[in-house]
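Appendix B.2, paired examples.
Example (i):
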Amino acid sequence: MNRKFIDVFFKHLFSIVALFSVLALGAILLFVFTQGTMPFLRSTAPSIRLVAQRIDDLTVNGKQYFNHSTFIDIEKNASLISIRFPSGDGEEILDIAINSKEKDPLKQLTFTYNSEVKITYPESYVYTISWPTAIAALEKRIHIILPEPPYSTGKFLTGLHWSPNRDKVFGIFPMIAGTLLASFGAILLGVPIALLCALFMSEFMPPKFASIMRSGVELLAGIPSVVYGFFGLMVIVPAVRTTFNIPSGNTLLSAIIVLSLMILPTVITIAETSLRAVPLSVREASLSVGASKMQTAWRVVLPHANSGVIAGIILGISRAVGETMAVILVAGNSPQLVFSPLESIRTLTATIAMEMGYASGRHSEMLFSIGVTLFTIILILNSLILWFRRRMEIES
C-alpha cells in the first residue's frame, strides 16, 4: 500500500514539475518573441514628448507644469507646440510647428523664438533647445523627442550599418554573416577532427587508454567558455597576428580556431558514445567478409552510428552559433561585413552581451529582435541537418 502510494505521489509530482517547466519555457519564449517583434509593429511613443532641464515653471500649450521631471506628452494630432517660461525680467517664448506628413525627422519641426536660442540635433529623432548663459552648467534646456516609426524588417535583416545611439540605424546583416562564417568555419575545422578522434577512441585505442582519454575529453567539455576565450586571447590571437603580420590578431580566423576547440569535446563525446553502441556483431560481419579494420570503422560502424553523430554535430553547431564570451575576447567585435578571415567580426550573441547593459527604448527591443533572429537561425540549421539525415536514411 505504501509503495503504491509513493509511486502515485511521484508520478503526479513529476507531471506537475514537467508541466510548470513547459509553461515557464513557453513564457520565456513568448516574452522574448513579444519584445523582439515590437520594434516592427509600433512606434516608440504615441506622440511627441518633452523633457525640461532647469526650468521650474513651464507652460506647454496653455497647461502649466511646476518642477516637472518626467516626460510631457503632446497631443497626438497637434500641429503646434507653444512653450512659455519666465526668464529674468521677461518671458521666453518658443513656438514649434509640426509637419506630421514629413518622414525626415530633421524637417518635421519648425522653430520660432523671441531670444537667442541654440538648437542642436544630438541624435536622430531628438532635438535639444538651449538658452545660452555665461555658465554652461546653468543653461535652461528643453529636449524634444519625436516618436520613431515602426522599423522595417528588411532594413533590419539586410542593413549593413549598426548605429543604435546616434543615427538609430539597426542593420544586422554583417553580424549574421559573422555568426554564420565563424560557426561554419568552426564546424568545417572541428567536426572532421572530432569524428576521427571518436573513431580512434572507439575502434583502435586499447580500452584502458580509451577510458583515460574519454575522461579527459569530458573534462574539457566542462571548462567555462571564458577560459577558452582567455586562452585564445593569450595564445591564438598573438599567433595569428605574428603569422600573418597584421596589426591585430582579433579576427574571424581566431574566432574559428577557438570555436573549433570548444565544440571538439561535445562532438567527440556524443559521437564516441554512439560508435561504441554499435553492436559487435556488425563489426564481426564486416571483418568476416574480408574488410580491414579501417574499412569496417569508416564504412560500417560510422554509418550505423550516424544518428548519434549527427546529434553531436547539431549540439556543436548550436554551441558555436550561441557562443558569446569567447568570441567577444578574440573576434575584435567590429560590426562590419568582412571579406577576409583576417578581418574583425562581431557576432549576434556578442552584440547582445556587449550592449544590453546600457541599451534602452528601441535599442533594447532590437537586442531582443537579435535574440529572435539567433533562435530562428539555430532552428533552421538544425532542421536542415535533420532533413538531410532523414534523406540519407531513405536513400540507404
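Example (ii):
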Amino acid sequence: MGSMVPRLLAFVLLLATTVAQNITVPAALNGVEGGGSTSIPFGSNLACRIQCIYDAEELPWTGPRVITGLLLRADNNVLNTAIAAKGYLDISVLMSTTDKSSSSASPTFADNRGTDATWVMTHQMILLPAQPVMGTAPRPANIPFVFQVPWAYGLTPATGGLPAPTNLLVEIHVHSQPSGVYRIDNLSGCTATQSSFGLSGLACKPALGTNVTLGGDASMLAGNPYSWQLANAEPSMPFLLTMNLSNTGGLAGNPAWPLPYPMFDPANPSLPSPALAGLGWPAPDCYLNIDPVVALGGVIDASGSGVVTAPLPAGRQFVGMTMYTQALVFSPTANPLRFISSRGFASTVCGPLGAVRIWSFYNAAATPPAPEPTSGSLQYGSGFVFDVM
C-alpha cells in the first residue's frame, strides 16, 4: 500500500497540469513568430527522420506534465501568403526526456533518446491543413498530431527507473509524403521585439534634410554582434550611439529632469535647458530620450547612413533584456548646439534559444528502399515551434 502513495501523488500532480491551456515550446515564442521557416520535414516527397531537442529552460512548465498531442505552427514570416494543404502523410512520433542538450546533442539519433522514450503515434495518416492569408504573425498552432498514447514528462522522483525531468526530445518520422512544399515555423534565430519611443521634433533635423532615424538588426542574439543603423543624417558627420538598460526616470538620475528631456529651454528655445546649461547653446525641438550610460562612436557615410556594431553579452540569462539607444549626430547648420538627436530605439534580446535539430531525408520508395537513417545533419539553435495538448 505504501508504494502506491508516491504513484497516487504523481497522478494528482499530472492531473493538475492538464488544466492549463495549450502552451508554446519554446516558451519565448508564445505569440511570437520564429526567426525562420523550414521545409524540413514536410517540404519534399521523400521520407524524413527528424529530432528536435529543447533545453528544460525553454519549456513553459516545471515538474510533471501529461502531453496528449502536439500542435505545430505553419510559417508566416512572409505575411499575406497562403499555404496549400498537403496530405496524406504517414507519420510516427516518439517523445522522450534526454540528458543531451542544445549544445551536446549527437548527430546519431539513438544517442539522444532517454530511457523513457515512447512511441506516441505509429503510422498515422495526417493531413497538413491549408493555411489562409494572414496579415499578422504568428499563425495559430493548428497542425494536430494527436497521440495514440498519452506521454508523461518528468514523473521522477515519484516513480523509479525514469530520468529526472531534464530536456525534451521530439522525434518525427515521415515514412511517406506526397510532393509539395509545406513550411512550418522554425527557430533558426529569433525576431527581436523592437519599438521607437521618445521625441524628436520637426526642427530637430539637418537644415536641408529630415529627422534622423535609428533602427537595428531584426534578430538580437546574446553573445553575438548586433548592429544599429542610422539614416537621414548629413554625410561625413561624426555621431554617438548612446545606450542604457532603461528609458525611464530622470536625466543623470534627477527626477526634476524627467525623460524625454529637452535640449532647449521650452520657455525660451533660444536658451539651453537647465541640465544642459553648461553646453552653452540649445538644440530646439531635440530631446534626450534616455539617460546615457554608454556611448559608441561612428561616422556617417556619403549616403547619410551610419552603423554601429557591438558584441552583446553572452549567456541565456540575457534573453529578455531590452537595450535602449539614441543617436546624437553632429550637424553644423541645424541649430546653435550643432547636434541633432533621434527618437529612442528599443530592442529586446530574443535568443539564442536552447534548441537543436537533427534530420535526414531518405528515399523509402526506392527499389530497394533506402534504409532508415541512423544519423543526420545537426543544426544548433533550430527547431520547430509547437503547442502541447
